[in-house]
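Bench log. Compound arrived from synthesis this morning; before running ITC I wanted a structural hypothesis for how pyridoxal-5'-phosphate sits in the protein. Inputs:
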Amino acid sequence: MSVVARNLAAVEARIAEACRKSGREPGAVRLLPVSKTKPPELIVEALAAGYRRFGENRVQEAQDKWELTRDEHPELEWAIIGALQANKAKYVARFATELQALDDLHVARELDKRLCAEGRQLDVLVQVNSSAEPQKAGIDPDAAEAFTRELAGFDALRPRGLMTLAVHSDDPASVRACFARTRAVQERLRDRDGGGWDELSMGMSGDFELAVAEGSTCVRVGTAIFGGRGDQAAWRRA
Ligand SMILES: *Cc1c(COP(=O)(O)O)cnc(C)c1O
């Protein structure tokens, strides 16, 4: 068994345990391995262990990996989990399966236009800034209702739910409060729309158990699967 496969199994067991503790079905949470800075060989190891969708925070890096792997592994799927600039929308429209970090209507408009030109649709999650830290991306929780109403006007974007990054803190209560805030936004949107908004992408290597306890349906885990990260370009030299 590869190290990656072993790490995946360990994370799966922790997710299952967190589900059990909070009375949730073990299958209620999907694990999205985050492969940023990691070479395609490790992604292929995770593919062999049953994972086909991978999270990348940079469009250029994701596209490079897509191009390197698409002939041999056309089943690989790419989830963009980092901020997207409008000038990169055309690339995302071409190859991504999911965008988890939508927080800008100008980007949404551009993305929709490019997707229509490609004849594609894209699952999107709206990123919520649940920690009120100014350096964090995401819309303010209070702006979510207005923002998501605008999204309904786009043909090619399929809003599926919300994504957030909790505050980076040793205090579990503050981390958990970020997840709870995001879940409260989800509840408001569901009440308004009579359902939908099923996805809650919350939790990373350091905090996914707390996120599962607060209702996460997708944990984005990098370090605990692929090990620590060097600089962004390291995978090209590997
Ligand atoms: C890098 C990253 C992750 C994974 O972080 P780890 O701590 O390595 O698990 C999750 N979400 C986003 C948005 C990221 O950029």
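What the model suggests: DSSP finds ten helices and eight strands in the chain. Residues 34, 36, 57, 81-82, 165, 204-206, 220-224 surround pyridoxal-5'-phosphate (CB under 6 Å).
ITC booked for Thursday regardless.
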